[in-house]
């Protein structure tokens, strides 16, 4: 009987797996179609300087606008785009659009674009980004590339070489979702990031958990001693903002300051004060 149940268990698993594979295959076709019809759009979320209260830049966040089904969030299609290799084309569209839009923001400011690990490892990615910058006229220092820390997992020589080359171009590099992976601190010694983004799961626990507040304060201190800019993600409450400010955090992003939207909220403030510290 146990054997029978075991077998049935395996069959159930197989069926689920099969239907998941089918769904994935269907989605892949739909994503190809969406690329053909140009249905990917870019939303922008403001990044605010806490000291001045001014917007210093925006993060570009992709959405899929389906004519019948409305807006599809990235979590629902980025994983399939990644596993099918379509992320390269989707990502290139996002870069193109984001740089084009940012070039029109009157007073400058940065646009932060997320790149998947496969994109940052890809051959020719540096040349493609350089070409997009040239075509859109966006100065390299106004583009910030956000990569998850897992990009540096293992030896990752390609990722490192490409990040170095991008940095040499003048593009800024940010480590996204800091604190969600393993041995986060070790990655900081491997690559000179310009910015660290503290993951919103930390920010969410800020008011309830004194330990988390201590961790955040030490990340901010570390950032300062390494001359790395720190942005806290997912700031939703006044209390979180107050605590982050007290801990020395300079840049914040979250629903409290604005959700991602199709149009930018307000022009970016003039860049008379540098966003990053010297060093
Ligand atoms: P991420 O890069 O960490 O982006 C921040 C996410 O947090 C966004 O979700 C944003 O809408 C959400 N968020 C911002 N403020 C708040 C807040 O105060 N509270 C809460 N609960 N959430 C907040 P979104 O747009 O759904 O994107 C999810 C993830 O999808 C991104 O996480 C990023 O990893 C990925 N992604 C988005 N656009 C792209 C893209 O163009 N290319 C690639 N490769 N990945 C992308
Ligand atoms: Mg979302
Ligand atoms: Mg990001
Ligand atoms: Mg993030």
From TrEMBL:
It comes from the Bacteria. Keywords: Membrane, Transmembrane, Transmembrane helix. Residues 24-274 form the EAL domain. This is Bifunctional diguanylate cyclase/phosphodiesterase. It comes from Propylenella binzhouense. The lineage of its organism: Bacteria, Pseudomonadati, Pseudomonadota, Alphaproteobacteria, Hyphomicrobiales.
